[in-house]
Amino acid sequence: RPDYNMLFTHMEIFPNTMDFDNKHIKEFTSLSQSNSDPKNVFYGVLPNSGNINIIDRDGEIRDYAVEGYLNKQTFSIVISINDKEIQHHIASDSPYYDNSSTLEVELTNSLTSWDNFKYDGLTIATGHSMTAYEILSDMLISCLGVIQDDVDDMCDTIINTVAADMSVKDYLGKISVDAVGADINIEEASLRDSVNKICLLGQLQVLENDEGDIKFINGRPKATESEMQNIKVIPLKMQKSSFEYEILLTNAYTDVNFI
């Protein structure tokens, strides 16, 4: 095509990086770490969701759509503001609309892939016990190929408990699963379903934050001691009499780069 570098005309693969600024982005919404029913507490894995529509100003994207590259690959997407990366996504579906020269990208993140990892399960023999943290570590290490230090990093968030504020790791380490009178079998399932069981046990959520780090956090609507000590009181005259709320609000940005 005459309106952009001829190198792209002859490439057989999708380029490693394509940059788009706010002139190309028609619409962008991202419900990071949210679920379909935000008014109810949910315990478990929370993949990101959202979409971005890109206007194909020079026809470059159309060529890749015609060649089928957009349907053959998933794309890593980074949203940047003022050259700082603030969100990481994966394009799960990317239809191209020729009549409007628009690429529509459905956004998710790496947590969605947990549906595709199979956990083989384990057995706790009669008379033995395992902590919830040991079980979670077995799930993540066997399915993701991570090491124990990686699991520790995922579980380093300080949360509120009845006893005291502590890390998710320490909290799950205090939950003992005892095989009394019979073996306990943790059945094989997808990694996501398996981790959801631990989250339900500990009332936790799993999210991928804006830095691309996977974190286990408190799913219960409780504040830590530090949050209670530093609470900000809003005067009544500044408050609304009624409102609709979400657990985590929609992230909407302008003047962003699509990478």
Question: Would you mind describing this structure in some detail?
Answer:
- The protein has helices at 6-9, 60-66, 69-72, 132-144, 148-154, 168-173, 191-202, 225-229, and strands at 25-31, 44-45, 49-55, 75-81, 84-93, 96-97, 102-108, 118-119, 122-124, 129-131, 158-159, 166-167, 176-178, 184-186, 189-190, 204-208, 214-218, 257-258.
- Helix content is 22%, strand content 29%.
- The strands form six sheets. Strands 1, 3, 4, 5, 6, 7 and 18 form a seven-stranded antiparallel sheet that branches. A three-stranded mixed sheet has the order 2-16-17. Strands 8-15 form a two-stranded antiparallel sheet.
- It is flat and about 70 Å long.
- It has eight helices and 18 strands.
- The protein is of the alpha+beta class and 259 residues long.
- Helix 4 (132-144) runs antiparallel to helix 7 (191-202).
- Strand 11 and strand 12 form a beta hairpin.
Mean of residue pLDDT values? 77
State the distance separating the first and last CA atoms: 22 Å
Number of helices: 8
Count of distinct strands: 18
Helix content: 10-25%
Q: Mind telling me the C-alpha Rg?
A: 22 Å
**What is the 3D form?**
flat
How much of the sequence is in beta strands?
Answer: 25-35%
Question: How can the largest sheet be summarized?
Answer: 7 strands, antiparallel
* Classification by helices and strands: alpha+beta
Spell out the helices and strands N to C: HEEEHHEEEEEEEHHEEHEEEHEEHE
Q: Ranges with pLDDT <50 over ≥5 residues?
A: 1-13, 245-249
